[in-house]
Write a structure and sequence with these properties.
Elements: H1 3-27, H2 35-52, H3 57-78, H4 84-103, E1 109-111, E2 114-116, H5 129-132, H6 137-159, H7 162-172, H8 174-179, H9 184-210, H10 220-233, H11 239-252, H12 262-276, H13 284-299
Antiparallel strand pairs: 1-2
Helix pairs in contact: 1-6, 1-9, 1-10, 1-11, 2-3, 2-4, 2-9, 3-9, 10-11
Amino acid sequence: MDEHLVSILTNIGGFTFIALSAYLLLLTGEISFGQQAFFGIGAYFSGIVTAMWGLSMWAAIPLTMLAAAFSAGLVGIITIRLRGLYFSIATLAFAEMVRLALVGTTWQVKIDGEMIGPNGSEGLGNIRWALDNNIEANDFMWIVLITLAIVMGLFFLMERSRLGSIFRTIGADRLLAETQGINVTAYKVAATALAGAIASLGGIFYAHAQTHVYPENFDVMLGVHSLAYGLIGGLGTALGPLLGVILDIGFLEAVEWVQGYRMIAFGGLVAVLLIFMPRGILDERRVHRLRMAFRTRKTEPPPAKTHDPAAS
């Protein structure tokens, strides 16, 4: 497979995780501009685990997701009384705190005669787990895409479960959810922690695909894009964020003549869709119609066979 295509597909898979994390919070009615913080935590923490501690990426994944979920849960607890714009500003402030902390962090150890570890604005390099284990770019792409398929499958199960209904009820009407006996505080903290863990998964794959990460990789624009992916693709299904990522990275970044105007095209696309499709392309109504059309087509009886006299 062409190297450029492999790179694009790997990026689509990796950035879909942060898009899904923002989408999960959108379901609960909250807009977060800070999911890049957990993406960055995933990249740095997993890089430390593999490059400095000598563990495999498979060991780094659960450790990193737990660390990100814990930090996101703390943010959820601290901001539990904030709603709307105030919550959005708080998440943005946290993300900037994380980025500046990475800029100011220097922690290096000598391994095989080479200094390895976070080095302030110079970032964290030598994340060579994939290279050291002879995992080609094509194979790493399939690791990312298969993991994404598993996570998407879990999202589909969640959306059809009581948990998914609770998240959407909280997002639609917090007061109604409370009157139905739903512990809104607990569920919103849980959603925040889960969203942080999912975003960190994208950071893990990003760091091990790039082998070197910098604090500026996790700036506010990454948070804006992660939020916009769900708004573009639609809030009716977890396929929405994936569609948003495909439109941005798969089309705007991949098509050569668009690349110079990518940000203009992306911003224009977001603006147009917010005007004409406020809930995105795959919003709740369109998803419902598609499901009903599929069920109707599936349950339609086959056409009756007619007897042809000429055949007899």
